[in-house]
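fyi for ur records
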Amino acid sequence: MKHVGKKIFGFKLTSDPEDVWDLMWTDGMVTVEMLYKMKPYQRINHFPAMYNLSRKSNMCRNLMVLYNKFPKKYNFFCKTWLLPA
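which gave:
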């Protein structure tokens, strides 16, 4: 990301979230306050509670909740995700 942003697109690299930026690449959790401060043109690689979709066990649990409420609309996911349950 650093190479592509800096060399190809001419982005300025900064580690200060209060600085002017277009794209924030982070490995940590993003706070709701940070999202509220973002401008409409700014983008970030994470969002709050992302682990609910990125972890297979959490995603399966959430899909099952939706499947139980809307069985006809949420019958698309693989049943093997239910293992070992």
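The chain is about 35% helix and 5% strand. thats all i got for now
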